[in-house]
Every structure is written in C-alpha cells, then in structure tokens.
From TrEMBL:
Similarity section: Belongs to the peptidase S10 family.
EC number from the UniProt entry: 3.4.16.-
Alphabetized InterPro entries for the sequence: AB_hydrolase_fold (IPR029058), Peptidase_S10 (IPR001563), Ser_caboxypep_his_AS (IPR033124), Ser_caboxypep_ser_AS (IPR018202)
Protein origin, superkingdom: Eukaryota
Enzyme class, spelled out: hydrolase
Keyword Signal: yes
Chief site of localization: secreted
SUPFAM superfamilies referenced in this protein's UniProt entry, alphabetically: alpha/beta-Hydrolases
One GO MF term attached to the UniProt entry: acyltransferase activity, transferring groups other than amino-acyl groups
Name of the protein this chain belongs to: Carboxypeptidase
Keywords per UniProt: Carboxypeptidase, Disulfide bond, Glycoprotein, Hydrolase, Protease, Secreted, Signal
Pfam families found in the cross-reference section: Peptidase_S10
Coiled coil: none
Length: 498
C-alpha cells in the first residue's frame, strides 16, 4: 500500500514537472535563433525570430525578432517596439538603439559587422518584440501586392492581428504586463494600435492581452501642434534671431505651418534657409555628406572638450550619421492623405539628408544572417532596406490627441518622451499637446536624474500621463542617450517615479 502511494505521488510529481515544462517552454521550436552571425559570445537570453501570417488569403506575413529578458522572462514585461517612417523597419531600433548588441562596422567592405553585448539593452529589464510593420516594410511581405497600399487604420488592425497570433504562439507570456512603444511616425502607430488592443479586450477577444500602457518617443501627433512647433524650437535653440522670431510671429499671426500671407511665407522661408545644413535629427551632431563628413568630424573633434561632450554618448562605437525617423520634409506635419516616404521624395536618386546605414545593410542583407533569423528567401524579400519606397501609405486616423485622451481616461499609463535637440519632431510640440489635453498637473515640472546627473525634465499629469525630455538627445533617444533611456524605461515599466 505504501509502495502504491509512493508510486502515485511520484507520478503526480513527474506530471507536475512535465506540465510546468510545457507551460514555460511552449515557444515555437522553429523560431529559436541558435546563433547570431557576427557575435562570438554566449547569448544572455533566448532569441526567437520568424513570421506571423495575419491574412491567410493574401499571404500577408509580418516579421518579428523576439528577445527574452535577461532578468526574469517569465515575470518581466513584454514590450512591442515599432519604428516609424511610415515604411521604416524596426530593426532600426534593434541595430542602432536598444537592441541586445552594439554593432561595430567591419574594417573591410563586404565583411560582417562585429557584434558586442549592449550594456544598455532594453532586454535587460523586459522581453521585447521588434516588429516590421506594415507588410512591405523590412522583412515583412505579402503575396498580394495590393496590400502595399495601406494606412494608419489598416496597419493598426494588422498589428493587432499579429499580437493575438503571437501570444497564441508564446502563451507563456500572456500573464506578463504588456506595453506598446515606438518613436517618430510610431507616434501614430502606437496609440492607434493601443486603441485596437483595448477594443479587443473590452469585446472579450481571446487571447486576452494584459495591456498596461504605452510609450511614444519624439512622435508625430497633431497636424496643427506639430506644425507650429518648429519656429519656437529653433528660436529657443538660438538658431534664428530674436528679430526674425518677432517678425514671423507678427506676419504669420501665430500659425507657422500654413503661411497666412505672402509676407508670412517669405519669413518662414528665411527660417528654413537659416537651419539648412543642420542635422535635423540632432542639431548637436554633424551632418553626413559623404566624404565631407570626415572633415566635419575632424573639426568637431578639435573643439574644446566642454563643447564636444554636449553630443557625446556612452556607446563604445560612434553614433551613426543617419536618422530617417520621420519620412517627410522639415516643417511638413502629418496631414490626411498620402504620406510620401523618403525614397519617393528623393526619386531614388540619392539617400535622404544626413544618412549612412551601412552597418544595418551589411548585416541584414548577409545570407548567413538571414538564414539564422529565419527570414524569407531573397526571391520573396529581395533585400532589406531601412525604409522602403514600396508602400503607398495614407494617414487616415487624424489627430492622435483623441486616442491619447481615450486611452489615458481608461487608466492606461502613457509616457511621452522627447530628445530635446531633435528638430524633426521638436519637444515643443509634444510639450504643447500633452498640456493641451487639460489634465491636472500632479508632478510639477522638475529635473529627473540618471547616473547622478540631471538627464532632462519631466511633468506628470493626472490619469498617468507623463511628459519627459532627455537633455542633449536627438530624434532616436536610446541611440544618443542609452544609459538615460534604459533608466527611464525601467522606471516606467515598474511603475516607479522617473
């Protein structure tokens, strides 16, 4: 009898172990990334990559790269990351911003970059999904090319479909807190997708996502507010004179993005002329102009160290000399209708201004890399591009302010952060629209710190809405200020004061 009971107990213990193993190891085996070309060490956490089909009839497949947390993957938040464009790959964030690796350019052209572990990777404190969206971007594709004509609302719907299927593939992460994050044109992607997720939760759609909140960095939001943000920004940064600023205010009656008269247009043209040649994505950084960049960099190095440190980062390798970010010209805010991509604007004749993406291109177009990360064959997705001209993309969701109001009023946490030296989507716009919502200020404007230094300023509002600046950073905050970015990121995810 005792022996029989022991046998039963042993069986129950083994069954429990088996069930625990199944529940925590149910990620698809075919998606695991066993080795990363260019990296010779041991991965600090598990990596997965592959496709999720969001429309079987069209063969619409969205590519993702998933990095498990280096902390406690079974408990740490799951965060979806989206780059903007529209039409730009989220490998932008993976390669250049907060991915698990720092990429060191190869010394010989054609060779693979060398990968080193990134001490400020966001996977230190979270599980993170990098998603190429919509189809046609990065390594995502559709067998029906009519899908490349799309817009805000369809992109949000497809990304929601992706999330539902992804969590079915990785059910062990369903109970983890879930956040959506992104930058630049993802100022549209993030709130529209968050809205779809919340609608699904309210409607009882399964699986039920444990959605907690979202983050937007230097994100486009509202045509009028974004459009009026540039002139106060360039004046405050000392890029135009007091006299010109007063003249523009007088001639344009406070409306800087649509000239109200010929004299207003002339004054605005003068503003554009004065800031021409400045790196729109970080006014502290030199602008890449092919071989001329070397001369610019050399003169930059000869500056006194106190000046040079203004734009320095903690990264061991140089910040790239490019930032696509927002794919339209300076002082042209998002309006209803088609949003041209940079390749379309440039007629494919040259790269966008201040651009150099050799490292990402060298790595993601390498055959061994594509095989390792389970990307489609080149006959399906011929080459990876940071930003594609394949899309015909329409802005059809209007101002994002109504989305932010709705989401925060339901109790979802929102962090709106801005690199304060970005001229592309200036912090003056983000500061203005967060204030315009009209919520009560519960944490008055104050500095926040990282590594014992003032890292920027923040203001907290009712309904868990927070506005944050990052001092000395450009458009892609984790690229320029990786330590500071990881600090505010982990505090926000944990629900701690920043």
């Amino acid at each position: 009898m005792v022996k029989s009971c022991c046998t039963v107990c042993l069986c129950l213990v083994l069954l429990h172990i088996f069930l625990c193993f199944v529940s925590t190891q149910s990620a698809p085996e075919g998606a695991i990334v066993t080795q990363v070309p260019g990296f010779s060490g041991t991965l600090p956490s598990k990596h997965y990559a592959g496709y999720v089909t969001v429309d079987e009839s069209h063969g619409k497949n969205l590519f993702y790269y998933f990095v498990e947390s280096e902390g406690k993957p079974s408990e740490d938040p799951v965060v979806l990351w989206l780059n903007g464009g529209p039409g730009c790959s989220s490998f932008d964030g993976f390669v250049y911003e907060h991915g698990p690796f720092n990429f060191e350019a190869a010394k010989t052209k054609g060779d693979l970059p060398t990968l080193h572990l990134n001490p400020y990777s966001w996977s230190k404190v979270s599980n993170i999904i990098y998603l190429d969206s919509p189809a046609g971007v990065g390594l995502s594709y559709s067998k029906n090319e009519t899908d490349y004509k799309t817009g805000d609302l369809k992109t949000a719907s497809d990304s929601h479909a992706f999330l539902l299927k992804w969590f079915q593939l990785y059910p062990e992460f369903l109970s983890n807190p879930f956040f959506i994050s992104g930058e630049s044109y993802a100022g549209v992607y993030v709130p529209t997708l968050a809205s779809e997720v919340v609608k699904g939760i309210d409607a009882g759609v399964q699986p039920k996502l444990n959605f907690k909140g979202y983050m937007v960095g230097n994100g486009v939001t509202d045509e009028e507010i974004d459009g009026n943000a540039l002139v106060p920004f360039v004046h405050g940064m000392g890029l135009i004179s007091d006299d010109l600023f007063e003249e523009v205010k007088s001639e344009c009656n406070g409306s800087f993005y649509i000239p109200t008269s010929e004299s207003c247009a002339i004054k605005l043209a003068k503003v554009d002329e004065l800031v021409d040649g400045i790196n729109v994505y970080n006014i502290l950084e030199p602008c890449y102009h092919g071989t001329e960049a070397v001369k610019i960099t050399e003169s930059y190095i000869r500056l006194p160290s106190s000046f040079r440190k203004l734009g320095e980062t903690d990264k061991p390798f140089p910040v790239r000399k490019r930032m696509f970010g927002r794919a339209w010209p300076l002082r042209a805010p998002v309006r209803d209708g088609i949003v041209p991509t940079w390749p379309q604007l440039m007629n494919l004749q040259s790269a966008p201004p201040c651009t150099d993406d050799e490292v990402a291109n060298a790595w993601l177009n390498n055959e061994a890399v594509r095989t390792a990360i389970h990307a489609a064959k080149k006959s399906v997705v011929s080459s990876w591009e940071l930003c594609t001209n394949r899309l015909r993309f329409y802005h059809d969701a209007g101002s994002m302010i109504k989305y932010h109001k709705n989401l925060t009023s339901k109790g979802y946490r929102a962090l709106i952060f801005s690199g304060d030296h970005d001229m592309c989507v200036p912090f003056t716009g983000s500061q203005a629209w967060t204030s315009s919502i009209g919520y009560k200020i519960v944490d008055e404007w104050r500095p926040w710190s990282s590594n014992g230094q003032v890292a920027g300023y923040t203001q907290g509002y009712d309904k868990n809405l927070t506005f944050l600046t990052i001092k000395g950073s450009g458009h892609t905050v984790p690229e320029y200020k990786p330590r500071e970015a990881l600090d505010f990121y982990k505090r926000f995810l944990a629900g701690l004061p920043i």
